[in-house]
Specification:
The protein is an all-alpha fold. 66% of the residues lie in helices and 2% in strands. Helix 6 packs antiparallel against helix 7.
């Protein structure tokens, strides 16, 4: 359900793109440090956003350091590593692991289950480091799996469960910011789930797989997405973020919508007869 939360690079300045990339590189280095080299294959921009967003919320003043890496042995690139990149690295692996397990359950993909085996030990380490978070993620996914098996066709039900997962993901600390961060993550999670359902609708109908939007017309999707984005925007504004503001707002209000429009152009009304 990931792959949607990324920047519209064409609307970022050169400096903003470099700053954004430094969080990506920082997450990559945190993955290697905490979870081993193999975990870098799970690197994505969704969890880069988590590291960037939490760094901004908590006004982390870590500055980028120029470092080389395996992929760029001759060129030093800016990299921001902090407690939030470390946290995001563990969550990145846990979510990637469960995505692979889900692929195995859906498609009986031998590649997915074989790849998931590679991350079992790292997931155990994540569970030891962040037991409450990992337990919450697992519980939400189990509830979501039951809803899908029961073929619940009210999209608010499964999207809310994924929202709960994302809420816990963003509520990194038990402090005065927890409620606001949880609320933001909750609405962002609902949006991601529905966007994924829109994207997969035609394929899910063809393969007779669960999708909560099968009773909806494609003409309804834009209104649904716009309402959910309004909830995300309202929750975001309550956080009063000033650090990394231009990059964050580019992602939330341009990057995600650009992705949606790209998906929307391919989307057909694929309701079953």
């Amino acid at each position: 359900m990931f792959g949607y939360v990324l920047a519209d690079a064409s609307r970022l300045t050169k400096e903003e793109n470099e700053r954004y990339r430094s969080f990506y590189c920082g997450l990559c280095r945190s993955l290697k440090k905490n979870c081993g080299n193999i975990s870098r294959f799970t690197l994505n921009y969704d969890l880069t956003f988590l590291a960037l967003f939490l760094s901004a919320v908590y006004d982390d003043k870590s500055e980028p350091e120029n470092k080389t890496c395996v992929l760029h042995p001759l060129t030093k690139n800016p990299s921001i590593e902090n407690e939030f990149s470390d946290y995001s690295a563990y969550m990145n692996v846990v979510l990637s692991y469960y995505k692979l397990i889900d692929d195995w359950k859906d498609d009986k993909s031998l590649f997915a289950i074989a790849k998931a085996e590679l991350f079992k030990n790292t997931v155990k380490k994540a569970e030891e480091t962040y037991p409450k978070k990992c337990e919450a993620i697992k519980a939400s996914l189990e509830k979501l799996s039951k809803v899908e098996k029961d073929n619940v066709l009210n999209p608010d039900v499964p999207s809310a469960l994924f929202g709960e997962l994302m809420g816990e993901l963003f509520a990194v600390r038990d402090d005065e910011k927890r409620e606001s961060l949880y609320r933001f993550g909750f609405f962002l999670g609902k949006f991601i789930y529905i966007l994924d359902a829109v994207n997969d609708l035609k394929k899910d109908v063809r393969k007779k797989r669960y999708n909560p939007l099968v009773l909806y017309s494609s003409s309804d999707f834009e209104d649904i997405i716009n309402m959910m984005m309004a909830d995300v925007a309202a929750a975001y504004k309550k956080l009063n973020i000033t650090r990394e503001q231009d990059i964050i707002e580019n992602i939330l209000f341009s990057g995600i919508l650009l992705k949606y429009r790209m998906l929307g152009r391919r989307q057909n009304d694929a309701r079953p007869l």
